[in-house]
């Protein structure tokens, strides 16, 4: 981190700003703290006023409920499957296209790339009616295909990975070709290993994005057993069960995998999110 | 001569083969829906039949006060959330970017975690906190002698509350982007400022904010587009109510499509949103493509 030498007099403005920012940072995490602790309370303690800041008696019965009376395990599997397969597809077809745009000289490559990148800003939700009808025609409503393919269509992977391929030296490709390696072999054996950090960033960002995708999965996974964890959890809100702790347990189950991913892969987020937005 | 032409042809062929899979998915699930959406917006669609009605669906929209309410609310959301996000993220990033690494990553993490756990989870927690019967916020309001408050049930307070919840959940991404941009600002600028005896406040105003202008443009645009399609928080917190006080374009589109079965009208809303998005993203696309 940069050390600007104004340590000698930390100005008052700076001290006050940082105090406010730290306070807000803690306050910002409070809803999550409340979510987690509420999920451990029993149905009467969770609505008790004045509230217990920490559950007096810790119970896991809400979690047992979620997994026994709701298909939360199936929802979790659906989410892992849909996010995982989507992300693998994005990486496979995205890295191929990114490599071509970065290293191969073919006709109209610039024009096609511009068209790809132009689509980055358009959220698929806007075209949800035609998209739903297309998926319906493929008989992919309530099927994993319908939950996966529209999420593969975006060109974010191409955009992100092209940035990484652009930093690799062209000489490598040339050398490989002189040695008689085919384009495919050059791509898979030489170039892909070099852009591993890019693939890592793309994997994490894309996985999280699909995991948290809501509107499209709500529309396409209508049967209870075909819902993703986000959509399934959200249906608990309409559940007649008046126990709030039980709904909070559902939300906690949906949140925890993302928290684990965040803690494990923090650095990938920064590099992935800033790609394309920040010039260094 | 012939050999060289062959090499070009082969290179072209290889290039196209490499982009083919992405191209197919892109055309089928992105380009085609846009074209189909424009077409559907001019049809009245029943279970089995489609009738061409020209711009009737758009006329229906113009005569529907709920559509205007949704449009108006969406504009309010966009303006306030974007201003709050850019302002607060600039404030946070410029105050912390040169502090020690552990502190920076603590701040970055605590603001980004709500982004990670998603709007769905955050909406559920906020709905619990704001619940008029047994929510923590309502309890504090009663405790302070404000009586029974129902922030989400009151047309006057519902918009500010949703603006706040959305802003607080999503500001982390803007903070990450600004911190990265500010760390990248050349150090000699700060050294020169120090030689001149500039205060921290002057450094922020004269050096930092101008240096991160491209990031500001990017954050503004992605946030406008993200807020434009705001849906989850509306569905889970208010259902568009009370009395359409918090209905948004995306929520209006969803209701028309999947509740009222007005697919043509919903498509027309989609087309309008598509045009807005396209116009908004032009400056960003220009800069993204210039980079290469």
TrEMBL record, chain A:
This is Carbohydrate ABC transporter permease. It is found in: Cell membrane. The chain crosses the membrane at residues 15-36, 80-99, 111-135, 147-165, 186-208, 244-265. Residues 76-265 form the ABC transmembrane type-1 domain. The keyword Nucleotide-binding does not apply. One of its GO terms (cellular component) is plasma membrane. It is a multi-pass membrane protein. It comes from Paenibacillus woosongensis.
Automatic annotation (TrEMBL), chain B:
GO terms for biological process: transmembrane transport. This is Sugar ABC transporter permease. GO terms for cellular component: plasma membrane. Belongs to the binding-protein-dependent transport system permease family. The keyword Cell membrane applies. PROSITE patterns: ABC_TM1 (PS50928). It comes from Paenibacillus woosongensis. The keyword Kinase does not apply. Pfam families: BPD_transp_1 (PF00528). Keywords: Cell membrane, Membrane, Transmembrane, Transmembrane helix, Transport. It is a multi-pass membrane protein. The chain crosses the membrane at residues 12-35, 70-97, 109-129, 158-180, 216-240, 260-282. Residues 71-284 form the ABC transmembrane type-1 domain. Its main location: membrane. It is found in: Cell membrane. CDD domains: TM_PBP2 (cd06261). InterPro entries: ABC_transporter_permease, MetI-like, MetI-like_sf.
